[in-house]
């Protein structure tokens, strides 16, 4: 009867947490759900997913038998059916420390490692631990939106710094210095880059570390795509610069071992000067994890065998597949006038391409492009708006090659069908300026000229 009286008085039984909706609106999975809702159920062709970061459904990207065997052994021993300790079991933490120490001038210990349920939980943990009222965090744009969602959930002010496409997506360090203040808790650096595929040089990362040191803030180094590189820049872990600035390295076995569903990640502290320990950050991480969930015990038990016994030929095969897929993707994009690949990726599994809506007659922006592409061609790609930049697209190339070629052919047909009639005129203007035929509208200079004339392009 009391409940009925409450209803009669206008009192609600419950009220939803609006922050959860805001977090979903910022998410990749939430956006892809919206795009998939536009699929035409009458289209008999297979839907091709180019918006994901999970190559594991495709047979060519099967994980190593070493990982399979390690998991089977862990299950059969029946020794890992119980709860795992907070932060992870000791052999797993020790193996992660040894694995990461291979690339560092320091030797990490198991005490520097905290195991998490994938890299997403690692992001949630470290942002939550560092947050306090009135604080802010520096996040890249374009970037991985889970950082924005976690920051918003912790009432952090989000301050975006730009990645510069004209400099192969390097960090705008001048902007970073201008954005930071005494309440800035950290700067997030994603390398190799999601969504841009950038792989930062040693020199650039050192400048990042020196900038963070001047600002008095630690670096959150998201290296979930660590070692997945196929360009001229080798992968350099941010922890190399731990003597300059404290570093939280976030990673997982998800991408390099092609097992994102196993949900095994980590937070690793590289801080030889002991600044974070003095601030009691490691104990705070443990306190947070004590309220959260641990990775499955059997996955933790498999980690030492996986990290120590995987052969290089498995990694080399993955890199070879990604490189071949990227080459196909880049070549096909050259034949699609309304999208441009300004810089060929050197790592991760994605290309970021610029969408020129001026060349399309009935496409308003990147989200509209993706929704209509799904409806008409059953191809799913991710709009840049969810990554912080309008009228860009993130295309995944980590799928089997026949499907990738089919998807790119469908995208080309879609763009031709929606092209404005004056495309030919624009192409003639481009040719008159000296650009080579066969790479229609691919130059940054030409796009900038069109944008200046129209005064309507919104990057």
Automatic annotation (TrEMBL):
UniProt keyword annotation of Nucleotidyltransferase present: no
Molecular functions per Gene Ontology: L-tyrosine-2-oxoglutarate transaminase activity; pyridoxal phosphate binding
Pfam families from the UniProt entry: Aminotran_1_2
SUPFAM superfamilies: PLP-dependent transferases (SSF53383)
Coiled-coil region list: none
InterPro entries membership: Aminotransferase_I/II_large, NHTrfase_class1_PyrdxlP-BS, PyrdxlP-dep_Trfase, PyrdxlP-dep_Trfase_major, PyrdxlP-dep_Trfase_small, TyrNic_aminoTrfase
Modified residues (N6-(pyridoxal phosphate)lysine): 255
UniProt entry keywords in alphabetical sequence: Pyridoxal phosphate
Gene Ontology process terms (BP): L-tyrosine catabolic process
Cofactor(s) named in the record: pyridoxal 5'-phosphate
Domain Aminotransferase class I/classII large: 48-411
Protein's UniProt keywords contain Transmembrane helix: no
NCBIfam families: tyr_nico_aTase
Annotated family: Belongs to the class-I pyridoxal-phosphate-dependent aminotransferase family.
Name under which the protein is recorded: Aminotransferase class I/classII large domain-containing protein
Organism: Papaver atlanticum
Species classification: Eukaryota, Viridiplantae, Streptophyta, Embryophyta, Tracheophyta
